[in-house]
Amino acid sequence: MSEAMHVKLGVVERRCPRRRVRRNLFEPSKVGRWVSFADLHREPFRLFFPAATVAGLIGIALWPLLLLGWREAYPGPSHARLMVQGFFGGFVFGFLGTALPRMLEARPLAVGEVLFLFALFVGNVVAQTLGLNTLGDGVFVGEIVFLFCILLRRWCCGADRPPPSFVLAGLALCSAVVGTGIQLMGRRWELSPAVELLGRLFGYHGFVILCVLGAGGFVLPRFLGLGARRRFAASTLDAGGWNRAARIAAATGAMILLTYALEAAGWHRAAGLARAVLVVAYLAREMPLERLRWSWQGVRWQMIVGMACVPIGAGAAGWFPSMRTTWWHVELMAGFSLITLAVATHVVFGHSGARERLGRFRPQLTGAGLLVLCGLVSRVSGDFLPGIQVSHYLYGAACWMAGVLVWAATVLPRVLRPDPEAET
Question: What is the pTM of this model?
Fold first, then answer.
């Protein structure tokens, strides 16, 4: 980033167009033991990560309730929306709301902005849980538009630019609005099956995969210890390099969205394979994959497995369209889930003074990741074993929920711990 920093005799000086702060590194921390109300809106992940976890658990629990006879309504639409708009969406909102203003060297989100966005999020989760999908989709569109506006305002008034890959995050928000809009139209007018499928692909898969590539293209190399493939100087000094990288990111996102249109038009195999190639190619461009090494320390292995599951699931879903939903779970239930939980772990530990724990083996985090993978295996194998399909669905849901609960018990309590490196 363009923020100039130098260290001299234990004093850090940060030069920023809005303020200048001098802080002695050797002085005792003045940060309290618990987060303050101001921390909740300056770092909205502290609100959204726990809420997103609850939304995901509810979304998965809908299926066991049906299979055990405790619920009569078919939960498919609510399940899909709670997982994408609630679980993945909540983590996306919390991450972008925390990270992007810092990258832009702009002021953090205001308390009113965060509370209003959080109220919309909770309203959406409640509506989808109750089966009010039309209301929930409308609220979700409002969430996306509001988040886009407040982040765009900070981009315009910020002193720096975000990483070029974050252009994909903007495309992800657009994909979510378009896809959800198509689904809302389908409740009012009769649409063709191809258009209905396109709405689901844009609203669910396009939204999540572009967010993962956009934010992940920047944070995954750093969290994996690979270093950046390329670095950009201050925006005024390296505008040409930033613009080229942003155009490549935008072109990649546009081609990924085009593959969803091809899939909806019936070109399943070509679309799935092209999407898998695009994901691998973009990650290889942004990350020095040749430096990648397997490690059980922290959550690195979960990121590696998650990145592998995304193109595998996308390619297999296109190659076997009759089992599209089965292979979508490889992409969503394992790929996106593991990446999301791993990135969230880095964010929470990094903002609560526990960054050093990420370099050690933690059996709770490893067990949580393995439970998520066991849930995937059980869910996918159930479609190949019709005689015991119901029991495998139940085992899959139970394992995934258990993994997320173990992760939540290990990580989420630290959202109440303040960042000891925060400026005072």
Answer: 0.86
